DNA sequence: CCTTTTGTATTATTTATTATAATACAAAAA
DNA sequence: TTTTTGTATTATAATAAATAATACAAAAGG
């Protein structure tokens, strides 16, 4: 599994792993129902501790992106079981902050929306 | 100065202060060129340590939102001096992650753009 | 049966971050 | 001269992040 990590980033590694997997599912590089690599193999691949990957998987499980099972490993949920976006108040607040920064940073509403449109990849 | 802080949040207090000020400027609640409260008064207002507010001001200064001066205090920059948004790669990556989560979470591209449009308040 | 594999729990340790506290400083303004 | 400004300093405490080594329960494969 390809995974771009930035060890200089202020974003913790386990969160970066979580984010990369979410983007992978969103882009279609990881399929719904697909079995993720085991924590041990992924940890070896990217050169981090087993528990760091486990922490990422646990978070993905808690957020409803995957189901982890001691016996079956980690499996991506079905499309219709993914966590709802519109009802997530945290995401709304993130968008408001980003939009504020955009407005201050010289982006008109339409320019901002163009960037948002570009960020959303149709599957 | 009104400031909503969540001490249960995983976002550090100094970052929340920074974010609230950026949103305040973006919403027009804080004017360009306006003098911000002193670190001591804001710290007393919201009940945190002086250095916590100082850290927020220092970050805002480094990012180009305000100018701090030992003698003149903290002053919001002019509109045309605000940090550029479109060229900020970090913001692009944030948008891509959000868009991925939106796509997985049942938001069509248009629904996602509606949320983005709603988040951007015209001044 | 036995071995392997699974995610995770546990314990210990190290490092970095966050926040508080009390003090101090340089320099402009009053 | 005194006050006010942001910030530097030093110390301390609490929390978070990452590593390390080990262990466990339970299913799967042989």
UniProtKB/TrEMBL annotation, chains A, B:
UniProt KW keywords: DNA-binding, Transcription, Transcription regulation
Domain of life of the source: Bacteria
HTH gntR-type domain sequence ranges: 11-79
InterPro entries in the record: Tscrpt_reg_HTH_GntR, WH-like_DNA-bd_sf, WH_DNA-bd_sf
Signal peptide: none
Name of the protein described by the UniProt record: GntR family transcriptional regulator
Taxonomic classification: Bacteria, Bacillati, Bacillota, Clostridia, Lachnospirales
